[in-house]
Every structure is written in C-alpha cells, then in structure tokens.
Inverse folding.
C-alpha cells in the first residue's frame, strides 16, 4: 500500500524530469546540427578608448542564426553546451572564426584588437593552447591583436600549467583579460600572480555609477586597484552617456556598451569602424 503510494508519488515527478532531460537532449542535438550546418556567427561590439574616443578593440560574441527562430543569444544555449563536450567544439569554432576575422581585418588595414571568451570546458582540455597556437599559425592571424577573456571564477581556477601557457602566449603578443570582474569572489593575491593585461568591470558594477555616490566610490577604487596591478580597466554594459562621462572622469581606460554600439555582424562592424575613423571629436573633452 505504502509502496504503491511511494511509487505513484515518484511517477508524478517523472514526466517533468523526463521533459527537462528531453529538452536538454534536443538542444544538444540541435547545437550539433547548428555546428555542422554553419549556423553560428560572431557579432562584434566595439571597445572605445575613454580618453580619445578611438575604437581600439572589439569583443567577439557568439550568435546562433537559427533557421526558424532567428538570431539566438548565448544565454539561451551556452549553459547546455557547457554541460557536454559541445562547448569545446563550439569554442574551437569561435577560435577559428576569430582568427579568420583577424586575418581579414589585417588585410583590410584594420588594427583593432579582437577579444574572445574562453569557456572553462576549453581550458580543461590539455591541448587548448597548442590548438590555439596552431590556428594562429595556419591563418597567419597576428597574435598581438588577439585577446583571451576568462571569467573571474575561471581565472581563479587556472592551474600552474595554464598560467605558464598564458604567460607564453603573452610573450608572443596576445593579451589576457578577466571578464565580469566584481560579479563573484576573487582572491586578490592570486590576481596579482596572473599574467594579465586588462580587467573588465562587470555590468552590475557599472550600472549605478552615474546615479549613486556609493557605486561611484566602489568603481573608482576598483579602477585604482586594476591600475595598481598594472592592468587597464574596461567597463562593460555602458548604456548611458552619463555613465560614460563618470567612467572617463574616474580614469577607466576602455568603454564597451550600448551607449556606443550594440554587437554587430562583421560587415556592419567594419562599416561602423569606417564611420568612426575620423579624428574622434565625438567625445567631449575631460574637464
Ligand atoms: P560577456 O562576455 O560578459 O559579454 C557581454 C554581454 O553583455 C554580451 O551579451 C553583450 O551583448 C552584452 N552587452 C553589451 N553591452 C551592453 C549594454 O550596454 N547593456 C547590456 N545590458 N548588455 C550589454 P551576449 O552577447 O548575450 O553574451 C552573453 C554572455 O555569453 C557573454 O557575457 C559570455 O559570457 C557568453 N559568451 C558569448 N560569446 C561567447 C563565446 O564565444 N564563448 C563563450 N564561452 N561564451 C560566450
Ligand atoms: Mg566577455
Ligand atoms: Mg563580461
Ligand atoms: Mg557578462
């Protein structure tokens, strides 16, 4: 009797769980197909020099151009990819695409740095750096225009071998950035041991910088910390001109966000760069 009840209770939950698992399996399958069919794209969002207004870099952001659902953002599929080896294959695709892009930009005389996001799954793989080097060699993409972005939590997990590889890559000219800084927990002394060029302030930190004295104080102190570590500070999620102006005044080096441009397809980005090549009188002088 009790046994029967127990069993019926379990079976109540079963359809839901089965549906979730099925959904996950379907997404995985769809992602594999998307990879095979070439449905992934990169979008590019400019990073602007806070002092001069010139476009110094672009972040490559993954997009899935779904045949029926339109352009899908990473938030809707990356988590599923991260749970399997798919993220490694997608990450490989991103590296190939980024290197090919850099090579095209270089041929077109563009000098913007291209920064891309590295997943924990990719770093777990022992041949990650070897493959990255091979890709750069094959495509003749200039390593000094490439930047790797690691989230704060991934950076904290880098082992000695990974740190050595990163240092070697930096010797060849590539740069390394910490992404989403201030959204999690960082071991600050560990940050000092990392071979780093830039630290990106999380959008959550940047949010209130123009409306709250507290937020401004925190961001200002964090920028000092970043400079003290010998790195440049990059603000992401800059949506308002007021945020832009505060960030410039407190010494942030690079700005990224909708206030300047949303992520764009490659052709659109190249055209956008063309429009922003002129002496950048767009930003008001810092008082
Ligand atoms: P992220 O690396 O921190 O990228 C910044 C995200 O903020 C992007 O979202 C970008 O479109 C968005 N953003 C830019 N400016 C603004 C703004 O002014 N306001 C607001 N509210 N948002 C802004 P996106 O493209 O949806 O990517 C989300 C996340 O997905 C990325 O966060 C990154 O963690 C991950 N991701 C994207 N591409 C890749 C990739 O190629 N590989 C891996 N492993 N992760 C990726
Ligand atoms: Mg990023
Ligand atoms: Mg970020
Ligand atoms: Mg983020």
């Amino acid at each position: 009797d009790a046994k029967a009840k127990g069993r019926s209770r379990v079976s109540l939950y079963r359809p839901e769980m089965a549906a979730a698992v099925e959904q996950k399996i379907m997404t995985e399958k769809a992602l594999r197909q998307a990879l095979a069919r070439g449905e992934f794209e990169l979008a590019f969002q400019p990073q602007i020099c806070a002092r001069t207004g010139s476009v110094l870099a672009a972040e490559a952001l993954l997009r899935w151009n779904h045949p029926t659902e339109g352009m899908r953002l990473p938030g809707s599929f990356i988590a599923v990819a991260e749970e399997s080896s798919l993220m490694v294959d997608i990450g490989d695709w991103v590296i190939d695409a980024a290197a090919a892009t850099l090579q095209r930009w270089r041929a077109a005389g563009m000098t913007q740095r291209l920064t891309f996001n590295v997943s924990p799954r990719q770093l777990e793989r022992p041949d990650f750096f070897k493959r990255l080097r091979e890709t750069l060699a094959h495509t003749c993409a200039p390593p000094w225009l490439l930047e790797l972005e690691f989230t704060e939590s991934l950076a904290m997990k880098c082992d000695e071998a990974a740190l050595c590889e990163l240092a070697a890559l930096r010797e060849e000219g590539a740069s390394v950035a910490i992404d989403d800084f201030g959204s999690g927990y960082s071991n600050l002394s560990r940050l000092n041991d990392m071979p780093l060029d830039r630290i990106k302030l999380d959008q959550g930190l940047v949010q209130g910088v123009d409306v709250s004295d507290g937020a401004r104080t925190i961001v200002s102190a964090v920028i000092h910390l970043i400079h003290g570590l010998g790195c440049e500070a990059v603000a992401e999620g800059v949506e308002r001109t007021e945020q832009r102006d505060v960030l410039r005044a407190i010494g942030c080096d690079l700005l990224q966000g909708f206030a300047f441009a949303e992520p764009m397809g490659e052709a659109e980005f190249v055209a956008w760069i063309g429009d922003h090549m002129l002496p950048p009188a767009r930003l008001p002088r810092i008082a």
The chain has twelve helices and nine strands. The radius of gyration is 21 Å.
